[in-house]
Amino acid sequence: MLKTSAYAAPSATKQLAPISIERREPGPHDVLIDILYCGVCHSDIHQVRDEWGGAIFPMVPGHEIVGRVKQVGQHVTKLKVGDIAGVGCMVDSCRDCASCKGHIEQFCEKGVAFSYNSTEMDRKTPTYGGYSSQIVVDEHFTLKVPAGLDPAAAAPLLCAGITTYSPLRQWNCKKGDRVGVVGLGGLGHMAVKFAVSMGAEVTMLSTSRSKEADARRLGAHAFESTKDEATFQKLAGRFDLIINTISAPHDYNKYLGMLRPQGAMVIVGVPPEPTPVAAFSLIGGNKRLAGSMIGGIAETQEMLDYCAKHNIVSDIEIIPIQKINEAYERMMRGDVRYRFVIDIASLKEPART
Ligand code: NAP
Ligand code: ZN
Ligand code: ZN
Question: Which fold has domain 2-158+315-346?
Answer without folding.
Answer: Quinone Oxidoreductase; Chain A, domain 1 (3.90.180)
